[in-house]
Amino acid sequence: HLAMSLPLPSEGDHLRPRIDLIVFMIDLKSKYSLKNVEASLAYVDASFFLGKVCFLVTGVGRVNCCSIEMNAIWKLGEDYVSPVLFCELELEGVRVATAQRLLRMLQICAGRVPGVSALSFGSLMRNYSDE
User: Fold this and answer.
1) Domain locations in the chain?
2) Which terms in the GO cellular component ontology are assigned (predicted)?
3) b/e string for 44-64 if b means 16 or more Cβ within 10 A?
């Protein structure tokens, strides 16, 4: 299910399936995209930030066209203890690999992978390069 922003409309709440993973998409070419994600984060229950939220950043192949500072993206990941994935949607191979990665994350978050919880998965995704 896709939503342009949060909160989700209240009509249809009883029909809405359980939410196992929230992927916030940020287009590096649009400052509005980052502002929309930042505004939507206030509507996410704090328990979701324990392994059930990630940020998918698109437009990484065109760094010279960026409207968003990369530090702002990294700060979101750090502040919300959530992984940041980068993808160039225009490249089919990268798009397919990213979709597969997101599907695997969803399987873990939904409890479909024995022995791996969303909480432990989140810690595996963290960037330890600055330690």
Assistant:
1) 18-126
2) chromosome, centromeric region; nucleus
3) beeebbebbbbbbbbbbeeee
Please tell me the distance from the alpha carbon of residue 86 to that of residue 70, in angstroms, as a whole number: 11
Dump pLDDT digits (tens) for 100-124: 999 999 999 898 999 888 777 656 5
- Residue (of 81, 93, 95, 91) closest to 126 by Cα position: 81
Q: What is the largest CA-CA distance in the chain?
A: 46
The string of pLDDT tens digits covering residues 16-38 is 888 999 999 999 988 899 999 99
Helix (H/G/I), strand (E/B), else coil: 89? coil
Neighbours of 26 (CB within 10 A): 23
67: helix, strand or coil:
coil
pLDDT digits (tens, 9 = 90+) for 62-108: 666 677 888 999 999 999 989 999 998 888 999 999 999 999 999 99
Q: Which amino acid is at 108?
A: I
Instruction: In whole angstroms, give the CA distance from residue 43 to residue 61.
Output: 30
Preceding omega of 7 cis (within 30 degrees of 0): yes
Residue 97 phi, psi (nearest 5) = -60, -40
